[in-house]
Amino acid sequence: MRVYQAHYALREELIRLLKDKGVSQDQLFADLSRRGISPLPPADGLRPIDEGLVALEAAVELSGDPCLMIRLGQRLGLASYGSFGFALMSCANVREAIRLLLRYGQVMFRPVWTVHEHEGGLLLRPGITIGTAKQQQLFSELIFSNLVTLGRELHGDTAERAQDVELHLRFSRPSYWARYRRAFSMPVAFECEHNQLFLPARVLDIPVKTANRAEHILFQQQCEEMLRGLRAVGKTTAAVRHVLIQSTGDFLDITRVARRLNLSERTLRRRLVAESVSFSSIVDEIKDLLAREYLAKTELKIAEIADLIGYAEPSSFRRAFVRWNGMTPIDYRQQHMTENTPQGAYA
After folding, report:
1. What secondary structure, in 3-state letters, does 246-264 show?
2. Residues 180 and 188 sit within 8 Å (Cβ to Cβ)
3. Which residues are within 8 A (CB) of 271 and not within 5 positions of it... i.e. 6 or more apart?
4. Of 152, 214, 216, 292, which has the fewest Cβ atoms less than 10 A away?
5. pTM score, two decimals?
6. What is the residue range of 131's domain?
7. What tens digit of pLDDT does each residue of 11-53 get?
8. The domain spanning residue 299 has which CATH number?
9. Which of residues 215, 250, 277 is at a domain's end?
């Protein structure tokens, strides 16, 4: 399953939007570098949320288009989410789609969504807690415009046009308010306590146009496999994995990981042994996962992938990849292209 496919899609669509505005990728990367942010994505495909917010703000400033995040959200469809997107398409109704979002959102999205019951309906609320007020506004525009876009693919505009559906935003009404009217076919309230979307009870049972129970079971199982692969392990192993992934490719050594977990190195090693795993095996597992994701979903060169997952020399990465998978990185990429990628996807 392509865990971080949506994040790669977002990056590519952002670059395309900027190109349409006369801003090159090199200009964006140079601006990010001036702000102290690496232009290349980290090894796990996910920037720390604070860096991501800065990158979005930089893109808006370079483009001169205050509506850029709304446009970006509208360009990310269900196909951008890989198996998760197909799982959403096969759901029976809005209620089931929201359940799917809540269960797998922790490994698919930033931010994680939460749901709160309200007047018989649900408040769908993203966890946006850091960044400047402007950055939070831009991020809210991105995720809510994307949420509405996904909803339109699933069930047309039935839900957003239903009575009592409302979008609540914490910030003041912007000068480009007219764009909101076109992007959201629902009442939008500003200066609210939370950023959230309210869905009344009757909306939750609106059917999904492409509902298919048999396919839903298949795609949900793929989501489950991803969730198990990242979380269904011993408590300490899961914590180490989380720290390594959040280290954005720095691949902390065991001393620094133990410090992050408020443990001594000796205690960390003892707990991992109790779970029948070693620190080095966890590092290899994460590197292998990320390497396969990069090979399958990007056109990054082998040398770039090697650098992103902590190998100074491509030859060292090649040897490690063969040890993990029984084939070379090039063979893995070619196999993936043959099995899953439409012809012509790689130049």
Report:
1. HCCCCCCCHHHHHHHCCCC
2. yes
3. 234, 236, 263
4. 214
5. 0.64
6. 5-204
7. 889 999 999 999 999 999 999 999 888 776 654 455 667 788 8
8. 1.10.10.60
9. 277
User: Do residue 256 and residue 307 come from a single domain?
Assistant: no
Tell whether 37 is covered by a domain: yes
Residues 140-168 have pLDDT tens digits of 999 999 999 999 999 887 766 777 899 99
- Phi then psi dihedrals of residue 91, to 5 deg: -65, 155
- Residues 284, 169, single domain; the answer is no
The average pLDDT across 84-113 equals 79
| 135 lies in some domain | yes
Residues 39 and 176 in one domain: yes
Among 177-191, 209-223, 231-245, the range with the most confident prediction by mean pLDDT is: 177-191
Instruction: Give whole-number Cα distances, 176 to 67, 132, 143, 180, 234, in Å.
Output: 7, 20, 18, 8, 50
Tally of domains in the chain: 3
Domain identity same for 272 and 282: no
The residue from 251, 277, 303 where one domain ends is 277
Distance between CA 248 and CA 285 in Å, rounded?
A: 15
135 and 183 part of one domain:
yes
pLDDT mean over 59-66: 96
pLDDT at site 5: 60
For residue 281, the one-letter residue type is S
241: tokens are 């994995």
Residues 292 and 253 in one domain: no
In a domain, 220, yes or no: no
Residue 110 lies in a domain: yes
Q: How confident is the model at residue 198, as a pLDDT?
A: 95
